[in-house]
Amino acid sequence: MFERFTKDARAVVQGAVEHAEQARAETVEPEHLLLALLDREGSRASFALAALGVGEHRDVVRQELREARRRAGLSRSETEALAGLGIDVSEIVARVEEVHGVGALSAGDRPRGRRWSGHRGFGRGAKEVLEKALRVAVARRDRHIGDEHLLLALALRPGVPAEVLAGHGVTHASLTRVLGDGTGQVCA
Question: What is the dihedral of CA 49, 52, 56, 60, to 10 degrees?
Fold first, then answer.
């Protein structure tokens, strides 16, 4: 499948691997793909994010992703659902971090003493995003998978990245409006 990726899409995948390494995560996850997309400039996805106002709020988006990671990857809606059951996720995070240190619940992070050797694999969620990007490209009748397809796939897949993007007005519908409908025409 990677042979169908454009240079920009490959750079996003490589950037996601680097973000996973920096976070000491065992696998690349959808959040790492979004962080890599936020790093890009001069690509279709960066154009779409800038057009939708995320360009000047990239640091806020990064902070929201860090906060979700600290909550063991739970989205705000999942946190609210647990609160409805009487479970205060903030309190649990505070207690765990009091005993085990800040970031102890960070989803996917390796214990500090363990060495990493070899290649970083992709988690189930990241694989789903890559597969969905292929489906999006095919549906739009595009021959190659670009970084815009990765962004569209992240907006379509339920989870923290889609929730964070939607909180900034970036949805599949708004992206389709900005990027066009796949026929080369920008939708009004």
Answer: -80
